[in-house]
Write a structure and sequence with these properties.
The chain has 148 residues and is of the alpha+beta class. The chain contains 4 helices and 10 strands; from the N terminus they run βββαβαβββαβββα. It has one domain. The strands form 2 sheets. Strands 3, 4, 5, 6, 7, 8 and 9 form a 7-stranded antiparallel β-sheet that branches.
Length: 148
């Protein structure tokens, strides 16, 4: 089930406890959760689609997960002032499960909000050690890509 974030009416998260990284989400559960959601607009909160490049993949994958066989399903980015953020759904090609991750270009972007940061495979980017929240546009587009 997708739940609305407390600090935003247009961002949602998929289950799990706060402070947990989501590496093993079942695609069918994501599709089902989005199908249950009711919404009026496809709010993006400033996030736009970005390229499925190796560079962006490295920015999203925590260094502890580098040995897994990842493929980008969906990736979006947002830039405000000096902060660059990305949200992604990555397919683990060995397990068929999906990782839902948030990364940023500065460790302080995560730690200043009271969260743990994990070094990504790109030495200049960090992954938040928490469940991913994303605007409704992300979830609907992810469902569409998983359905096709």
């Amino acid at each position: 089930m997708l739940s609305v974030c407390a600090n935003s009416n247009t961002s949602y998260y998929l289950g799990d406890l706060p402070g947990t990284i989501q590496y093993k989400k079942d695609p069918k559960n994501i599709i089902s959760a989005v199908n249950e959601l009711q919404y009026d607009d496809l709010e993006s909160e400033g996030y736009i689609y970005t390229s499925h490049s190796i560079e962006n993949l490295n920015r999203m994958v925590p260094h502890t997960q580098k040995d897994n066989n990842w493929k980008i399903i969906l990736i979006m980015k947002s830039t405000t002032n000096e902060e660059r953020w990305m949200k992604a759904a990555l397919l683990n090609k060995d397990t068929g499960k999906i990782a839902l991750l948030t990364s940023t270009n500065k460790k302080e972007n995560i730690t200043s909000r009271g969260n743990r940061a994990i070094q990504s495979c790109d030495s200049n980017w960090f992954v938040g050690h928490y469940r991913m929240t994303a605007p409704i546009l992300f979830w609907v587009e992810l469902k569409n890509r998983l359905d096709s």
